[in-house]
## 1
Amino acid sequence: MKNERFERYIYMGVTAILVLIAAVFVVFLFLERNAVFAFLGKVRFVLAPVIYGAVLAFLMSPVYNWCYNTVVYVHDDDKKKEDEEKKIAPKKRFKSESFGNFLGKAVGTVISLAFLIVVVVSLSSMIIPQLYSSIVGIINMMPVYFQNGLLYKIAQFQHIVTSCLAGIDHEAGMLYAHLCIADAGTFQTALVDQK
């Protein structure tokens, strides 16, 4: 037996509880967003092959469908418009429906994969030469990068030595500081001369 007097209050109570649960969930998402993003990153990593496969299947479906329809059905351009208006199914090429479906699926799959390979190879042929020239440029500039880094470290060393020994009043400490700076400066000058 259904009690309709309290049905409205039950619905309101269930709605209020669901709203509270949703609010707690949203607060949890904001407070633990690093953990949530880490979890979503792991889920994305695990589902990446499925996602890539679904995207490729979606992109290749027009090629597959066109090949399948071309192999399985007979197409007369004159009759095609009439058949579409009358909602008549197109005529099949093969008497055996299972052989026609098998052949259509096989041809559609092979041509779709060949089309995908052509697209990947053409994109790779555009990217690889640019990537090669970038890598060669980086390799050719590597000595300059190392030399600039070494000069920067020498300058840092000079600054550290002068700041550490600036508070020493006796002459031995200052003499040592000047000798270190002079040696580093000589080394720096030798590096610059090699350029």
## 2
Amino acid sequence: MRSLVAGGKRVCIIATAVLFAVLLSVGCSRSKDRVARHTAEREAPSPVSVTVNPGGPVVIRTTSAEFDVLPSGYVKAYLLKDGSKTTLDEPLPGATGNHLSSGSNETQFTLNFAETKVTTPQGKIGRGKRVEIPAKPSAPWASGLQETFAIEVFDDFPNIALTTQDYKNTGSKDVTLDQVVTQAHRLNAGSSPASTTADATPASAANTQPFDMWSFQGSSYEWGKDDVIHLRKNFSQPNLMGAQLKNGLGGGIPVVAFWNASVGEAVGHVETLPLVLSLPVKVAKDDRVTTEVHLAPKVTLKPGDSYSTPRTFVSVYAGDFYEPLHLYASVLAREGWILENAGNHPQVERDEHQVGHAGRSLVPELWRLGAASGHISRELNQDHG
């Protein structure tokens, strides 16, 4: 009997050891599979393509969007969906996407596509393409300024393009930068086919008013004022961010968005610290909608000094304002800026489901801190001193 019991124990020990070995082998195999999959993803070519045309534009194409960089620095954004290419952008010939002023002097910049450099982005957002293009000022007073325009588009976020401008004083005299404008856009609801508003029946583009679109205004401009509005003729709102207005309000979510039934477009910045800037929205005399990122650095560049704009963005999408806020929140999450009480979501990795989960967790918190209370910038100022 003792022998049988001892034999049974030996059999049990052997079976346990075999089971452990099998589980260890399966675990190692799965781990190797994951490593192999991630390695293959890293080594696979980026789906983002860049085409440099000698006279412009530089065309950056992703799986669902296209961003055309015009010689003036204007970035025209297209949504690619169901075989169609739609946009709200309608730039005037030669219209600039960025310009600056010093006192009463203003200058635009013209990109030199012959010296375009295409590299890979550095940072937490992930793989993609970075395009750098030097530019020269049009005004003689600014001849000593050299601009480097940079645009980045990412594999995991194909519907957004981040841009920066670096201005270097290569001259022998000081240059003061009072006002800097970037991400300037001129929008027309009739630019996209079959344009309609959210509550209207389909109408031809020819019968659509250029301002006939919905808009999300992320600033806390006026207490009780709607954040989501149907734009009307002569509409104008300054959308100051990062500073308190005379009425005690200020701050908000640094995003303005526009959409109709066909396509949407949004502009803002993705810096994780609060910045003093404005995102003005205006229906111009020609009924087109204009917006931009307006900065007032008021810095003096000595010879050799540089000034870089914050990372601003243009995004293109289908749907309402939730889409760009979701995208904005997901980019912030990838940067490591997780809002308090945003949920115990996993760290955003190269996985579409996780990116979506992070964005859905963050959007309500963005709304609570920004659009609902209007104090996101002030809370950030308290957090960061």
## 3
Amino acid sequence: MYEVPDQPHYVILKEGTNQGKLALTDQLGFSYSLKDKSKKTFTWRCVHRPSYAPPCNAKVKQRITEGVDFAEIYDQADFTFVPPSFSDPHYHIAKDGIHKQKEVMRDAKKAAMEEKFKASRQIVMAEL
């Protein structure tokens, strides 16, 4: 039986966005894109930015160690959730399974580039 996690477990996905950039998921159903870099921290911003409503301002800060690839080697203690100024951390609902969806989409896109004449349904079903 599937149980929804109550604590975030952050995972960085290489080529996790449509543009092939890094993505961060928390396995609670929220996804983040890289917003800002400094020498000691990276700031990730929630990707929920609809045209019909104000964007979600939830952020996650990741502490980085100098000389270490932050996308490969990281600890859960490196991440700190920064809620927006109002009471709810996210004003939108979570997308359950978004971390797996991003992995499947990334792998399906790679397979589609290698096998251009294969039906898209076959590619996606093979990834599942």
